[in-house]
Specification:
This protein has 214 residues and is an alpha+beta fold. The protein has a single domain, classed as Lambda Exonuclease, Chain A. It contains seven helices and eight strands. It has helices at 11-17, 27-30, 39-46, 59-78, 127-132, 141-154, 185-204, and strands at residues 3-7, 83-85, 90-94, 97-102, 106-109, 115-123, 158-166, 172-180. A hairpin with a 5-residue loop joins β7 and β8.
């Protein structure tokens, strides 16, 4: 595989560029595992029948944007063994599958020269059930799909997901998750097949299957 990189100068150009594939934040929707978006809604966006919603005024989105630089610096302080680069509007993809893309919150290099990914999250878990999704070394399923997608798009070796979780009182809990490609190869193969199937529906103009709901 050969890693390619497209560099954009601003958010507007980047948003336009990412419409030509499936980004990491869209991966769960593509396979019917997103709590916010269905495969049909994503398909309509990718086939040009709908336009993306502008979420720039969303309070949670604004909070995440404000917090991201500070969280990245905190992660850097915790991990002096890692080199960290950040390219806000770069889109990465494998030359052989340019439709599978990722824009990273940080690009990492360890002492052995292996390349990795930093994914930053801010969230306010909803009640006990919401916190349980972040407990016992686990993360919400849609975020797990997202970091798997990033490994597929980049070919990199590992991911750190670093999350700032807000309680209802405003306290912040930090959670760190480390995932290595060698430990999730079967999940990567499964996700690649599912996303490839969805993208065939986009390029072929055929409706994707809808997940069953109870």
């Amino acid at each position: 595989m050969s890693l390619e990189r497209k560099e954009f100068l601003n958010r507007e150009d980047w948003l336009s560029g990412r419409q030509n594939g499936i980004g990491a934040s869209e991966a769960a929707a593509a396979i019917g595992m997103s709590p916010w978006q269905t495969p049909m809604e994503l398909w309509r966006l990718k086939t040009g029948q709908d336009v993306p919603r502008d979420l720039s005024d969303n309070a949670a989105v604004q909070q995440g944007v404000r917090m991201e630089p500070a969280i990245r610096e905190f992660f850097k302080a915790l991990h002096p063994e890692l080199e960290i680069e950040y390219h806000a509007f770069d889109i990465l993809f494998q030359k052989e599958r340019p439709w599978m893309t990722a824009t990273l919150d940080g690009e990492l290099v360890d002492a052995g020269g292996k390349r990795g990914i930093l994914e930053i999250k801010t969230a306010t878990p909803n009640g006990k059930a919401g916190w349980e999704k972040w407990s016992n070394g686990q993360m919400p399923q849609n975020y797990y799909i997202q970091v798997l997608h990033q490994l597929l798009a980049t070919g990199y070796d590992f991911v750190y997901l670093f999350a700032a979780l807000y309680s209802m009182t405003g306290d912040i809990t930090l959670r760190e998750y480390e995932i290595h490609r060698s430990d999730v190869e079967q999940d990567l193969e499964w996700l690649f097949e599912k996303e490839t199937e969805f993208w065939r529906h986009v390029t072929g103009g055929t409706l994707p299957p809808m997940p069953l709901t109870m």
